[in-house]
Amino acid sequence: MSEQQQEYSLKDYKGLMPIWCPGCGDFSVLMALQKALQHRQVAPHKLAVISGIGCSSRIPHFINAYGFHMVHGRSLPSAAAVKVVNPELEVIAAGGDGDGFAIGMGHFPHTVRRNPNITYLVMDNEIYGLTKGQTSPTSHTGLVTKTTPWENADEPINPIMTALAHNCSFVARGISTDVKQLTQLLIEAMEHPGFSFVQAMSPCLTFHDTYEMVRNTSKDLPEDHDVTDRLGAIKYALDTDNMWTGVFYKVRRPTLDEVTTRNKLKALERNTKSPTPLMKIYADMGGKVPTSTS
């Protein structure tokens, strides 16, 4: 059967058996991601999942795909590089709030700027779960943990606001208790041309049980919310009384893939009249030397 005729089932995206704690929200996030991949019929051999370090960063092992369990906080530059080298791949970067917004935070705004055509899925449990329950960048003020035995004095990072402040081209939030909505958000994120950020609130039942808070405060964004209105999206992101879910913002900007391809063509065209080793290599690989950058 040819690749075009192949129909992938949910089972085709299942890798190793997940080993998260019973009740972990990441199980539902994994299911949502697998359902989104099935809906889009992404061939497993054309899928790459890149992660950092943490409980949720184990996710490449649990999906039938090319996977790279990266060092702490470096999933985004690695995922962007994979996409540039092989634009035909569907590339997912995944991790947690500690991996993404502590050691990896420096990469976030610059990935937004470059706008690679990848999806970044952050499973946010507001705690460091893998290292057994320390405060993370999204932990609320006043939280008592092993590293803050009296209380957490730090203000939490607002991931949605951070993404909007840097003009991320796709910003969304879902919750692990609503697999249907989260699946749809991931479908939209993967279909969006550019860098897509999806925050998935994923409670840690073992070290920081936020299930009740998620249930009581989550609300779907109004149907009349204009996803192209960045200021309107910021208003919902700054609402501390409600945890709004859905697509906050979506805008079309040139992607890193498109700009890189355009620059390659410009470099090749400039050398058309005086062939260079670069052009010979390009031709030997089967590429047609362009005569126009249009």
Description:
With 294 residues, the protein is of the alpha/beta class. It folds into 2 domains: 10-253, Rossmann fold, CATH 3.40.50.970; 255-294, no CATH class. The chain has 10 helices and 8 strands. The chain has an 8-stranded mixed sheet with strand order 2-1-3-4-6-5-8-7, with helices on both faces. The longest helix has 15 residues, at 26-40. The model has no long low-confidence stretch (mean pLDDT 91).
Could you outline the blueprint of secondary structure elements for this entry?
Blueprint: H1 26-40, E1 47-51, E2 66-69, H2 75-85, E3 90-96, H3 97-103, H4 107-114, E4 119-124, H5 159-165, E5 170-175, H6 179-191, E6 196-201, H7 211-217, E7 218-220, H8 230-237, E8 243-250, H9 256-270, H10 277-284
Helix pairs in contact: 1-6, 5-8
What spatial order of strands do you see in the largest sheet? 2-1-3-4-6-5-8-7
What would CATH call the class of the largest domain?
A: Alpha Beta
Shape-level CATH architecture of the largest domain: 3-Layer(aba) Sandwich
Over all CA atoms, what is the radius of gyration? Answer: 20 Å
Distance between the termini: 37 Å
> Which class of secondary structure composition applies to the elements?
alpha/beta
Summed over residues and divided by their number, the pLDDT gives a mean of: 91
Question: Given the C-alpha coordinates, what overall shape results?
Answer: globular
Give the uncertain stretches in residue-range form: none
